[in-house]
Structures are given as C-alpha cells and as structure tokens.
Amino acid sequence: MDEKDLISRIHTLVDEEHRLRESGEHTDEERARMTELETRLDQCWDLLRQRRAKRQYGDDPDEAVARPEEQVESYLQ
C-alpha cells in the first residue's frame, strides 16, 4: 500500500468512526466496531510513520510493514 492509499484508508476509517460516535446510543456491535476502527487506525498511522521515516533516512518505504495489533496498541500516547 503506498502513502496515498494509506492516507485514503485513514480518512475512510476516521469518517466511519465519526459517524458511529455521532449516532448517540451505541449497541454492543457498534462499540465493538469502534474498538476495531481505533485499532486499525493505530496500525495505519504506525505504518505511515514507518514509511515516512524510511524515506527520510534513505531507505525503501515499501519495506515498512504493518505491525501486529498487540504491538501498536501497547504504544504510549
């Protein structure tokens, strides 16, 4: 996934998350989906940062890989 596709994916996930959050009362299914969206967004943002760091330091950004959920979710904000 190139940077343009990654940014587009981030926007799509953010839009869905905003729609869900604005809908008032949430079902268990909606809460689960919001949690999933947050995780996917964390993975996308991490991958984007990896790609940009690799490019900045002369490495191939296509070598960046999405890290597992367990890893990105344990980062300190």
Characterise this structure.
With 77 residues, the protein is mostly helical. It has one domain (3-72). The protein is built from three helices and no strands. Helix 1 runs antiparallel to helix 2 (28-56). The longest helix is centred in the middle third of the chain and has 29 residues, at 28-56. The protein is elongated and about 50 Å long. 5% of the residues are buried. The model has no long low-confidence stretch (mean pLDDT 92). Residues 54-77 are annotated as: Disordered. This is DUF2630 domain-containing protein. Pfam families: DUF2630.
Topology:
Blueprint (H helix, E strand, L loop, with lengths): L2 H19 L6 H29 L12 H4 L5
By secondary-structure content and strand pairing, the structural class works out as mainly alpha
What order do the SSEs take from the amino end to the carboxyl end, as H and E? Answer: HHH
The residue ranges in which pLDDT falls below 50 over 5 or more consecutive positions are none
Please tell me the overall pLDDT: 92
Q: Rough shape? A: elongated
> Measured on Cα atoms, how large is the radius of gyration?
14 Å
Strand content: under 5%
Describe what is shown at a glance.
The protein is mainly alpha-helical and 77 residues long. 68% of the residues lie in helices and 0% in strands. InterPro entries: Uncharacterised_Rv0898c.
